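Subject — a protein and its fold

Tokens — whole-number codes for backbone shape
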Amino acid sequence: KPNKSKGLECFCDADWAGSWQHRSLHDPISAYSRTGFVIMYAGCPIIWKSTMQQLIPLSTTEAEYISLSSALREVISVVNLLDELNQHNFPVHGATPKVTCRTFEDNRSCIEIATNHKTRPRTKHLSVRLHHFRSHVVNKTITTEHISTKQQIADIFTKPLPRQQFMYLRDKLMNWSSPTKLINDASTSRDVHKTAIGTHKTHKISSSVTASQICG
């Protein structure tokens, strides 16, 4: 059900070289990162995407910034569309008369690059291709805000998640009235990990016993 108290929102995230493994040393594709974002209007998802990045980032911050840039290309088009509808007296839901978009990002360094427009030694190689949205940040059409990783809906588009976290973000994405509770189960995770190790040891012992019986 649409939430008329919310306007245009965008959640974007990235998984830096998430498919990289030591056995993938000769596989260049494993060095790519994944972009995930969802654009929501009145609390309902209208555009979403999960794709491999075409550029190879050198850090997590760069991967997040590439993801932010990709998401805001779509956001700017939607903002322009809603602004045009607003000018023609179509009902547009939003917190302010001016069409704006709140963008949520869980990497503070990425937000710093997006909002503080300075040339830095480590980011000077970022091309105009990635800085296209800065004018919208300056005139406050787009605002970038930090959000915790556990509340980052776009995380569901970038990598496999624990079952509880996946269900929680899924419910938030679908705007269901009674979302799954997110349990802070650090101790549970440790218990599951211990159980998995114990199971692995049990299988290993059983295998060795079976082998010794066969050899005997």
